[in-house]
Amino acid sequence: MKNTLFVTFFLLITNFFYSQLVDLAKISSGEFIDYNRIYNKNELYGYIYFFDQGLIDKETLQIEYILFDKNFNKLSTNTFTSKKYFENMKTRFICGISDPDELEISIIYSGKENGIYHFFRTNFEISLSTNKISPKYYCINEQLKEIPESFSEYKKSFTKENKPCYIQYFPKLNSYSIKDDIFEDVGSETYLKFFNDKNEQLWIYEYNSNASKQNYNKSYVRFSTEHYLYMLEKKYINEVPEEHKISVLDIMTGNKKNEYVIENSQSEYNFENNFDKINNHIYITGVYSKYKKNKKFNFFESIDLDNLGYYKIVLDSLGNEISKNYILWEELQGSLDIEKNGIVDKKFILTPVTHFIFKDGSISFLVQKYRPYKNGVLIPIIGIGDIILSSTEKETLNSDFVLISMDKDFKLKNINTIKVDLVKGFNVYNTFLFSQYIKDKTEAFFFIKNYIKSEKKWYLNIYKISNGELKEEIIPLHSEKDNYEIIPMQAKEGYIILREYNEKEKYNQIRLEKLN
């Protein structure tokens, strides 16, 4: 029955080419809990799958991992232990490869204990050649410390006197950074420290030494090259962004080479920011509006957003402005029934989903038509008041996706509308899954999981963007006879992973398929 399902399923998918099949149920007896794509020096290295093998004792879990290369050939398998700190604990894994053969693993824990919410992470390494596992450690008070066995001991570090910190690895540079993190009501970030692979501190960048709860900065490293780190910094006053800039730091010294202010109190516009690094240039893009103090972009609260359209800023490698372009919503008229504030079809706003910046500088924005929730009118009359409240209340609605493509000069190239069923509730049935660039960022794929209400069935919509043109392929994510779930997952360039899953029959297969 199981093999029949996949034969039937893939006879319907004529644009897929069989590549590699792995039966996870046969190679692991544990419960599948997570997977990661792993990169080494910005190149896809492979895939890692994690399985919960159950409790060793009251508070110790055994976790198994299986590591595959990017073609789904098994490289190694091993187990390690993880603490079950509290009931209903959630875990998430972030992994990477550092030279020469170290598997870096961060486990992010979240959950409640006695009504108190906890969020923290642990880090450790596994040697792929020897399977040796390092002690687990965390970052506190500007240094790495081994994690206590007891959670009660561990919790003693969760105080206002201690400063948690965050580790970011740079495998391509054989280095890592430590930046102080913020727990609620603890304080503000103050520094970025940079280390080599021998744990030697190379430099420190201090940017927030006089912070207070009302006036503070937040930052993180957005990009890195062999010469520079690009820090995205935001200055907050009373929890509202006051200044937004990119600082360019010398990778060897930490000295600031330049900074580019995207927005501050003297700006003409407020910006919603997306960042990419293409051809040694930095692209900043999104929607914009007339500047208002204390303005925050929030696409889901009100239909009256007052945003004007899209913008694009291009910087050189040192953060100097090369160009800045804007396009108004009115300039998109004709292909869309769109008003000046970005409202379409009289009731929907175009909410951002993702964007693509291609090698030639052209950009495509993927958005979805969305109607925000609207409170009803409450009249304090028994019976009648409830009727009026119900009739005037408006639920959220989701409708078609729209792809807006601009050329390298930021002129409108074309607009494509992707029809989907109108549904209530944000992203309940029509769900953007993920995307990938192909052919050196000259083309791209994106994937939407779509529920057809009339059929009561799920489909996978696959879209390819090439030179601003959109091509579509729709395949089923259901079986006519069997209750199997088919889950699309991200894979290497030009491929997709399809996981077929049935918990009752202990069936769990993953298949790497080439996109045509």
Span of the ends, CA to CA: 28 Å
Average per-residue pLDDT, rounded, comes to: 79
How much is the radius of gyration in Å?
Answer: 25 Å
Give the uncertain stretches in residue-range form. 1-18, 183-187, 297-304, 385-393
Query: What is the percent of helical residues?
Result: under 10%
H/I helix tally: 4
- What coarse outline follows from CA principal-axis ratios? globular
The proportion of strand residues reads over 45%
For the secondary structure, the number of strands is 36
Describe it for me?
- The chain is mainly beta and 516 residues long.
- The chain has four helices and 36 strands.
- It has helices at 2-11, 24-27, 151-155, 384-392; strands spanning 16-23, 31-40, 43-57, 60-69, 74-83, 90-98, 102-113, 116-127, 137-140, 143-146, 165-170, 175-180, 191-196, 201-206, 215-224, 228-237, 240-250, 256-263, 269-271, 274-278, 281-290, 307-315, 321-328, 343-344, 348-357, 363-371, 397-406, 412-418, 423-424, 431-438, 443-452, 457-466, 469-476, 485-490, 495-502, 507-515.
- The strands form nine sheets. Strands 24, 25, 26, 27, 28 and 29 form a six-stranded antiparallel β-sheet that branches. Strands 19, 20, 21, 22 and 23 form a five-stranded antiparallel β-sheet that branches.
- The radius of gyration is 25 Å and the shape is globular.
- 24% of the residues are buried.
- Mean pLDDT is 79; it is low at 1-18, 183-187, 297-304 and 385-393.
